[in-house]
């Protein structure tokens, strides 16, 4: 049995990591900014203030591994850089056998601001002196549905003419749990969902599932970010190891919405 700390263990991915670790019988600590986070009963929780090294060190004490899922999408320094720096400072202080980080396929090739912070965070980890593992995956089904929901609100749904390879956060969570309890592996093979699908097609499927009637119009966008997505730098066709399809996820979600 290992002791594993999951930062952001309250999030879409983090709670899946926690679930798999708990089910496998590990001692799991969830760090959260909230005093009363909602997580699995068998996981311990520690409230942390990422600006205060003391609270992070308390949470990391005795950890065999840390799975770093907490993310700051915006902020003055942006994204994950500052947050990851603080996690690394605390982990160096307490010692940690494996710092596992989740990143995104294409962060080094698509100049999205959030992606730039992810690649910078990856480099901080690689240079940290700590044993580390980094997994990059494609977009989660949950994120795709959130985006489709927003895009298909207007009567005419203008949807980017792009493809995505969505993956179930549950499968990524299982993989991270496995990596956290194994030896540090450095950068491991990317992980993508089972299918590459056109976003306008996904929008139509989503609209049908929720019974919303909209006209979907694919649109081309401009700029280097869109060009990177058009080139497919966010896809991992050779690593389509996820098995749960978007349609399966959507059907299950319609049966029991969360
Ligand atoms: N979503 C995707 O499609 C996708 C794909 C590939 C990789 N990833 C990566 O997977 C990781 C988790 O993503 P997710 O979608 O599960 O995120 P999420 O649901 O938004 O959860 C992120 C967690 O981070 C913590 N957090 C949020 N804002 C914070 C802040 N300002 N300071 C400190 N902690 C903060 C929150 O925990 P508390 O509120 O409890 O503190 C939250 O539970 C991220 O690193 C993301 O880049 C995501």
TrEMBL record:
Gene3D superfamilies: NAD(P)-binding Rossmann-like Domain (3.40.50.720)
Pfam families: NAD_binding_10
SUPFAM superfamilies attached to this UniProt entry: NAD(P)-binding Rossmann-fold domains
Lineage: superkingdom: Bacteria
Molecular function terms, GO-annotated: protein-containing complex binding
InterPro entries registered for this protein in UniProt: ComplexI_NDUFA9_subunit (IPR051207), NAD(P)-bd_dom (IPR016040), NAD(P)-bd_dom_sf (IPR036291)
Domain NAD(P)-binding span(s) in chain numbering: 8-140
PANTHER family noted in UniProt: NADH DEHYDROGENASE [UBIQUINONE] 1 ALPHA SUBCOMPLEX SUBUNIT 9, MITOCHONDRIAL, NADH-UBIQUINONE OXIDOREDUCTASE 39 KDA SUBUNIT-RELATED
Protein name: Nucleotide-diphosphate-sugar epimerase
Organism: Saccharomonospora viridis
